[in-house]
Design goal:
Largest sheet: 8 strands, parallel, barrel
Bound molecules: NADP nicotinamide-adenine-dinucleotide phosphate
Structural class: alpha/beta
CATH class of the largest domain: Alpha Beta
Shape: globular
Radius of gyration: 19 Å
Oligomer: single chain
Length: 291
């Protein structure tokens, strides 16, 4: 691959940054760290209206302040949030627990719009199916409600998260077409979620990868990652992010550290990986033959 990596792509008519900043687990630091990410240059923000793990109102405050200060324009920002089922939430709910699923989705979405003081989200994601195998009726109802939001123009693109291949295929049937995004935890030991990524590539779905570093700490020290890092003058973390981008993933980082945030975005400027390096990295977690 010799062409420069795209910092933005066009997906179904919408401009999408190819590296997302994730806002989970930041609590009181959420506003400051979201502001920091925008200052450093991230233009896509991932969150969820799930107070248990995210503080979406604080993310929204940082975004509004950055827009107000002229750091970014709303049109240049990509805002993604999620609907989280009752059992993924604590008592701080963004909807009426007794309401039906379509009402819960509508209430959660409206609350997200208010957090960001915006009238649309760039992407809206079903946080996860309510069961491990297949989709339940409440998942199908949530997906149909997401589709309504998209048809109203308030949610531009749709996604599903924490899905296996069967669930993704079923979601595509409910939506009438494959979603724009899948957001999954990406383990090198599964060929970096190969079956799901293969489906995504074949169906024009963009794969968003989280936990690329934390789920693969064993991979960072392998001979192949270290060799590539040394050739590029980069860190092992940067090699993983660069690999993810080159194979078409959208990586997420939730770094709290400004230097790491800059290092993460600097992977766009690294030398391309060679075909051999790409092949070795593609299989690095599956066996010890490379490392
Ligand atoms: N859909 C879901 O269910 C789901 C689940 C989990 C996460 N997510 C999303 O994905 C986002 C990212 O989460 P994550 O699980 O990938 O983990 P993360 O919160 O991004 O943690 C990444 C770890 O990597 C470190 N790191 C980042 N850049 C680095 C660098 N250049 N050098 C060294 N260390 C570096 C960070 O440490 P420092 O802070 O010190 O840099 C941090 O400890 C979340 O915020 C959330 O938006 C979604």
């Amino acid at each position: 691959m010799t062409e420069p990596l795209d910092r933005r792509i066009t997906l179904r008519g919408f401009s999408v940054p190819t590296f997302f900043y994730g806002t989970a687990w930041k609590e009181k630091e959420t506003e400051r760290l979201t502001a920091q990410a925008l200052e450093v240059g991230f233009r896509a923000i991932d969150t969820a209206n799930q107070r248990k793990h995210y503080f979406e109102a604080a993310v929204g405050k940082a975004v509004q302040a950055a827009i107000g200060a002229g750091v970014v324009e709303r049109s240049g920002l990509f805002l993604q949030s999620k609907f989280t089922h009752r059992r993924g939430q604590d008592q701080r709910l963004p909807y009426d627990a007794k309401a039906d699923i379509p009402t819960q989705v509508a209430q959660s979405f409206q609350s997200s719009l208010e957090h960001f003081a915006t009238d649309y989200l760039d992407s809206y994601v079903l946080h996860g199916p309510s069961q491990q195998k297949g989709l339940a009726e409440e998942d199908r109802a949530a997906l149909r409600a997401l589709l309504e939001l998209q048809q109203s123009g308030k949610a531009r693109l749709l996604g599903v998260s924490n899905v296996n291949l069967g669930q993704l295929q079923e979601a595509a049937r409910v939506l009438g077409a494959p979603p724009a995004f899948v957001q999954n935890r990406c383990f090198a030991s599964t060929g970096w979620d190969r079956p799901v990524r293969d489906y995504c590539r074949e169906h024009g779905v963009r794969y968003q990868a989280f936990s690329l570093l934390t789920a693969n700490s064993d991979v960072l020290g392998t001979e192949v990652v270290q060799r590539v890092a040394s050739r590029l003058g980069a860190s092992a973390s940067q090699v993983v992010f660069r690999f993810a981008l080159e194979v078409g993933m959208i990586p997420l980082t939730g770094t709290s550290n400004a230097d790491h945030a800059r290092a993460d975005l600097a992977v766009f400027d690294l030398e391309p990986l060679s075909p051999d390096e790409l092949e070795q990295l593609a299989h690095v977690g599956e066996s010890s033959r490379w490392g």
